[in-house]
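Colleagues,

Please find the record for the two-part complex below.
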Amino acid sequence: MKPAPFSYERPRDLNAALAMLAANGSAKIIAGGQSLGPMLNLRLVQPELVVDISGLAALKRAESSRDELVLGALVTHADIEDGRTPDVTRGAMRGVAANIAYRAVRNRGTIGGSLSHADPAADWVSALAALGARLTLRSLAGARTLAVEAFVVGALESALHAGEIVEAIHVPARAVSAHWGYAKSCRKTGEFAHAIGAVLVDPAAATARVVIGAIDTAPIVVTDAAELFGGRVGADYKQRFDARIADLLIAKAGINDAVRRHIHVSVLKRAVHEAAA
Amino acid sequence: MNTITLSVNHRAVEVLAEPRTSLADFVRDKLDLTGTHLGCEHGVCGACTVLLDGVPARSCITYAAACQGADITTIEGLDEDEVTAELRAAFTREHALQCGYCTPGMLVSARDLVLRLPDADERRIRVGLSGNLCRCTGYVGIVRAVQSVIETRRARNIAPQAGGGRTILGPAGSGRATSGGNEQPLRPARQELAPASESSAPDVIPDFTPATVLDQRFTLPHAPAKVFAMFDDIKSIAACLPGVSLTAPPKPERVEGAIRVRLGPIAAAFEGAARVERDPATLSGRIVGIGTDRRSRSATQGEICYRLVPIDGGAATAVELSIGYTLTGMLAQVGRPGLVRDLAGRLVADFAGNLDRHMSGAPLREVAPAELGGLPIIFDVLRARLARVFGRFFAKRGGAG
């Protein structure tokens, strides 16, 4: 339960961090360490070098404009929960953050670290996909942006290239007319979810984004979710929610166990009801 | 070993430690502050919770080196703290502890709730304490004690402390290292690890009852008899299995080999042996294997049963796999079987694709980095176990980053 020996560097800026990452293929970035720490302690991961980016001020920014919020990768779940960052989602992100793991974990765990870890059961993976967020990824070669739903490609597998890190998260402003619902099922409070449902429904614009998450691989992201509401998204979307379509989507994603599908559908239904409440 | 400078219980501390030293081990072993307890050592149980720059943090998954310049408060530093004094009295009154192992962490978390949540009811207190496990009390007394302190303070009109008093962004404890950038990188005292392996292949491969079974199925556009013959060609089969290598010349009934599996940042290499059984009459077979991963000190037993079913009038074959496994050791501690399914699915897809290419005479695609050695079906087994293996470790909590 003690990590294998590793070297440790605290780069003075982002470029220095990227250079260390590029120079050592087995280097691991650590921020809050709430995902990597357990894996190091269990010796499931044994990097030669751990590059601690937690001191980089450039990754601790939080700026909002009219259209979007830009969060540096080092913003913690507690920063969002407590409202130390601006909010363009009218409380949606605060609610998600407040229910991630435990307070002692939220005080160090970061939004960028959680995404980089790409655990299918992690909250931000599903919530940010539903909110339509995008990521800035940076390497020595430059920066690129990617939608969150394109970033997570499988269990613990992200689209990050070697030598690349998550630099910032761009969250679009939630429309005044858009409803938000988020639900998850955990066997124990604070532990990994077995099912996550996240919905962003805008009856005025007749649009809906729906995410079915914690399915052990990349979440199901339905960007145009009219089919889940009988073909159109209107004010009566709660009544029109079609559990059979949800079940089909989940089955198509490879979940053969009817009980698990039932849990996912029920959790999604809860999210829809929360949005409509 | 390098010098780590920080403040513990308002005392400046400068101590040598390895980079891998957790904050918990640092205060316990270097400073003799043994009030900080270690339970799970992977962030689940909460016994090690301390205040880091004033807010609760897990000292078992926070490395001391990452806390350069930070303020640490352990339970020993809370003797004079007003809220903790009230909590101690309430814990005594409500019988909120028995063995006391969880109590230091419990008090740190409870103090945070009292400061932040002046309106917390029983439910919120229970949720707030859910990251601190107690095996003695059943929590009733603990919840009552915390609730009584919150209510008393509310009655005294004591204002809450928003965010626990934190005003800056980023991980608690971070960003306090003295600037300058000329710091020496911390190097571990790297001992040479024991040589990789003597032969780890067991002589006897026992039968077992798998703890987990998962079914996989894929189809190949080749006749069952051809596929069955192919399954007997252990070297070729091995070559189709991503990450598999043979460690000894295969015999028809026994294979020794290794399989490397990667799941995100986790890499495991299981070395072992498998016994191969085949029944030409039913076009089915069974591979029973046993293997160990030295790095994670994990062991697995695995079994792959396959059955070839003719489809499309016998022109093609459905390969039905039933993969059973039991995992022990480090990798088994973290129970996330679901992730294995995803990994196993990807591996089987690669395997099926390579089999098809091989049987059609096409070159294999480089699926796995590194070695596509020669390995048999065992691989299946092996790889499946690995898969499972992987799938299970991640024990973390709720997607914390």
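Confidence is low (pLDDT under 50) at residues 192-197, 367-399 of chain B.

Comments are welcome before we finalize the supplementary table.
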